[in-house]
Amino acid sequence: MMEIHWGEPIALVTPEGDDIERFSTIEKARYWLRRRWPVSGRMRDRALAQVESAMDCMSPVEDARSAFIHAARQAGFAPA
């Protein structure tokens, strides 16, 4: 499988504050949104929809990245 890079990696401190995660591909962002996201809600759902749309080449990767960052802030992640 080919990975889709979405620019500079996004480094985030997890909500618990004990780990830093680096998101350098859209696939990792989707995995986290689907399997490891600490909260569910509208922002998470929107980010997941944007990520999957970008993976299907239906929308720009930049839109997925922006939605992911907004969802991460809402979920309690902090910039590393």
List keywords for this structure.
single chain, 80 residues, alpha+beta, three-stranded antiparallel beta sheet, 3 strands, DUF982 domain-containing protein
Description:
This protein is of the alpha+beta class. It has one domain. Helices cover 50% and strands 21% of the residues. The protein contains three helices and three strands. The protein has helices at residues 26-36, 42-55, 61-75, and strands at 5-13, 20-25, 78-79. A three-stranded antiparallel sheet has the order 2-1-3. Helix 1 packs antiparallel against helix 2 (42-55) and helix 2 (42-55) packs antiparallel against helix 3. The protein is globular. It starts with a strand and ends with a strand. The relative contact order is 0.25. It comes from Salipiger pallidus.
How would you summarize the topology of this molecule?
Layout: E1 5-13, E2 20-25, H1 26-36, H2 42-55, H3 61-75, E3 78-79
Antiparallel strand pairs: 1-2, 1-3
Largest sheet: 3 strands, antiparallel
The fraction of residues assigned to DSSP E strands is 15-25%
What is the succession of H and E elements?
Answer: EEHHHE
Mean pLDDT, to the nearest integer, reads 94
Number of structural domains: 1
Say how many strands there are.
3
Give the overall shape.
globular
Structural class: alpha+beta
**Low-confidence spans:** none
Rg, Å, rounded? 12 Å
Helix content: 40-55%
- What's the total helix number? 3
Distance between the termini: 29 Å
Provide the spatial order of strands within the biggest beta sheet.
2-1-3
